[in-house]
Amino acid sequence: MNNGLHRLSGNGSLYPTKVKSRRLRWDVKPSEMANNTLNPIRAIVDGMKLTPNPDKPMIALSIGDPTVFGNLPTDDTVIQAMKDAIDSQKYNGYAPSIGYLKSRQALANFYSSPEAPLTDVILTSGCSQAIDLAISVLCNPGDNILVPCPGFSLYKTLAVSMGIEVKLYNLLPEKSWEADLKHLESLIDERTSCLIVTNPSNPCGSVFTKEHIQKILKVASRHCVPILADEIYGNMVFPGCSCPSLASLSSDVPILSCGGLAKRWLVPGWRMGWILIHDRNNVFGPALHQGLVKLSQRILGACSIIQGALESILNNTPQSFYNNTIGFLKSNSEICFNELSTVPGLNPIMPSGAMYLMVGIEMDHFPDFKGDVDFTEHLVTEQSVFCLPASAFEYPNFFRIVVTVPEELMVEACGRIREFCQRHYRPSSCNSNDLDQ
Fold this sequence. Notes:
Blueprint: E1 6-8, E2 14-16, H1 32-35, H2 40-47, E3 59-60, H3 76-87, H4 101-111, E4 120-124, H5 126-138, E5 144-149, H6 154-161, E6 165-172, E7 178-179, H7 181-186, E8 192-198, H8 210-223, E9 227-230, H9 246-249, E10 255-260, E11 273-278, H10 285-296, H11 304-316, H12 319-341, E12 346-349, E13 356-361, H13 372-383, E14 385-386, E15 388-389, E16 398-402, H14 407-424, H15 432-436
Parallel strand pairs: 3-14, 5-6, 5-8, 8-9, 9-10
Antiparallel strand pairs: 1-2, 4-11, 6-7, 10-11, 12-13, 13-16, 15-16
Helix pairs in contact: 3-11, 4-11, 5-6, 5-10, 12-14
Catalytic activity: L-tyrosine + 2-oxoglutarate = 3-(4-hydroxyphenyl)pyruvate + L-glutamate
Pathway: Amino-acid degradation; L-phenylalanine degradation; acetoacetate and fumarate from L-phenylalanine: step 2/6
Cofactor: pyridoxal 5'-phosphate
């Protein structure tokens, strides 16, 4: 009756009998996005042969997690804020994807100033998601972003997975890791959609001066390029240094400032981050703001309990807690810098903030090793000290030290690094031209 084209279904409806040819075998593959996602740190570390010396306890100076050794707990007021939020039973459900209004307002009150007026605040699942959202809302496949070198590897991991080209602008170790402004500006073209500035720096521990930030802003302004400011280490600067936010110095460049509780409050596992939208001239406008709202809906927002505790954390954490943390990091940095400055073949660069110190390796004096990866791998094998090779930050012949370890372990680690270098250091040999003179 239906000429074989349809048959009656169980509910009485008609549907075609002809279907597309079916697959003959299972063929499930990862997506292009998955295949294009690569964490440079994991790629390098997973390829290293890390076999510690069984006669020496391992000292890991490689992980940017201040909680690893248990010597840097968060403040009691932070813990109490979390307990109160849980006990209140008010924060067990879904929050708005961009965060509770009360929590966002608390952040706005904490960070807003006449010099850096805020347009809005978006709460995120850690600073990493804040960076993800910021790149996602600013960039399309085929665009390019400018990323510091050395710099945090996540920027490239996220961008490349989205089909965004990464252009690396150099930081200058001889100038305390200031940006090479001429190099930075030379990389900008019509597809440049974002300039990433990390201040204070991971992995360098450097802090840009007010004057240098202003020069960076002039470059961005000249080419109408918005800035993603990674300021997760904001305010974590040593006494005597200052670290103004980029937004406080910008008169026209729109800025998405990414931050979070992770480092300053010493709770990276709590995954509370944020984007502070600074758009005093309405360059971003409502469209970009709405784009961030839409992107935030992909995972339905940050942890509701921590949002409930946020206002109390921001308002009640005593200044002494911040001061004690910074004092410890500065002291450990000075110990590390002073110890390694006298080690032949090493050139440490004293940081001004954050939790890191970079050390240059004069590879010509260490012919036993092919480069920084080989150097740090053998340092583990012989001395059970693990420092992250800076090739993970696309900056070879350096290694990064995390200075959050207890002081006695920092002293011990530096002693072992000295012993390792003394064993392998070779003076430069004279070249033929020297012999002819």
